Amino acid sequence: MEKVILIKYGELSTKKDNINFFLTKLKDNLLNILKDLDVNIVYDLGRMFIYTNSDINKVIDRVKNVFGIHEFNIAYIIDNKEDLNTYILELLKEKEFKTFKVESKRSNKKIPKTSIELSRDLGALILKNIPNIKVDVHNPDLLINVEYRLNNILVYFEAIKGLGGYPVGTLGKGLLMLSGGIDSPVAGFLTIKRGVKLEAIYFESPPHTSREAKDKVKTLAQKLALYNNEINLHVINFTEIQEAIYKNIPHEYLITIMRRMMYRISAIIAHNRNCKVIVNGESIGQVASQTLTSMMAINEVVKIPVIRPLACFDKLDIIDLAKKIDTYETSILPYEDCCTIFVPKHPVINPDKNKCAEYEKLIPYEELIYQAIKNHEIIKISNEDKNEYSDLL
Question: What CATH number is attached to the domain comprising 199?
């Protein structure tokens, strides 16, 4: 009897003609995250199996962070049908339960009995050999799954829930506008879940923003790299642009013009990095720059699609998800980013895009953008990085 990890695909099984592309990517992503462990991965259209000589709990902990998996189980492979009864009773010695159900599946149609008959036979065996238990087909304490395959039999019990979604990298690349706030890391997580591999862009404004603020964003990027395999973080020095806006633009339009500049820079970086979309954490109505009119006025400066995974989320829902993915405590650290400095008392809620265009003529923004991109920093953050800056936060 051999122990393996059995992976079930869920949504991937709907891909039909393209399923091999998705499964190959899923296997590659698993091999990447498990590359320092002794594993072998094989798959067919129905199941994927991870064989390992390493600590199986280490493997499980990492598999939990891989998108494209509906659920997985610790399964036991029994090569000979004659050994099934012995092994079933041996495995059940380790389980605590009062009620149970046997659920059999029969892909090997040469077996003369039906799936129901096979389940009844095993149920009778268990009742005969284990005292003080009974069958409950509706709500059992223990579900015993038995799959009769062509060359062997699989036995498994409790399912471990996977992250779902699509394997990272199957749906192209996107550029995440990553601030130090609560929303953008959550938006990044949800985008990765749909199979989009992310790079990230961060706008700093020294000396108005601190080194700790930048380190905070690195930490958030590292947490997202756990799901994304790695992240290239593009750091843009936004100081000259932001100061020019502050000195020359009517203050009620500061945020709107600032965001338009950020979008322009993000679109150029996205183009240069073969990213198909810009991703951000905007939620409708949450702040002045996130009204529909503001989004329209800001969005018009770029042609690349902008997706907002959190557009219709309540703030409390976003906070709950941030806590689940372990970004919340980092996001609430009190270090300002450039979106929270120079905030006017009364930002315009419904900006006029024609006024935006007129105000932008007051600053040499094309040259400023060119210099910011030319001199920007790229930090490569992998899912293996130790957080050397965590002691600063």
Answer: 3.40.50.620
DSSP E strands, 107-172 = 134-135, 142-148, 153-156, 160-164
Give tens-digit pLDDT for 45-94.
Answer: 888 999 999 999 999 999 999 999 999 999 999 998 889 999 999 999 99
Q: What is the pLDDT of residues 306-349, one digit of tens each?
A: 999 999 999 999 999 999 999 999 999 988 777 666 777 788 99
Distance between CA atoms of 347 and 193, rounded to whole angstroms?
Answer: 34
- Residue 258 and residue 144 share a domain: no
Alpha-carbon distance of 132 to 128, in angstroms, equals 10
Q: Which pair of structure tokens corresponds to residue 136?
A: 């409950």
| CA pair distance 268, 105, nearest whole angstrom | 53
Q: Are 67 and 195 in contact (CB under 8 A)?
A: yes
Tokens of 184: 């953008």
Name the nearest CA neighbour of 121 among 80, 81, 74. Answer: 81
User: 228 near 197, Cβ under 8 Å?
Assistant: yes
| Furthest-apart CA atoms within the chain: distance in Å | 87
Distance between CA atoms of residues 275 and 198, nearest Å: 8
pTM recorded for the entire structure: 0.89
| Closest C-alpha among 377, 46, 332 to residue 186 | 332
Give the number of domains in the chain.
2
Residues in the chain: 393
Specify the CATH number for the domain of residue 40.
3.30.2130.30
User: What is the pairing mode between strands 69-78 and 2-8?
Assistant: antiparallel
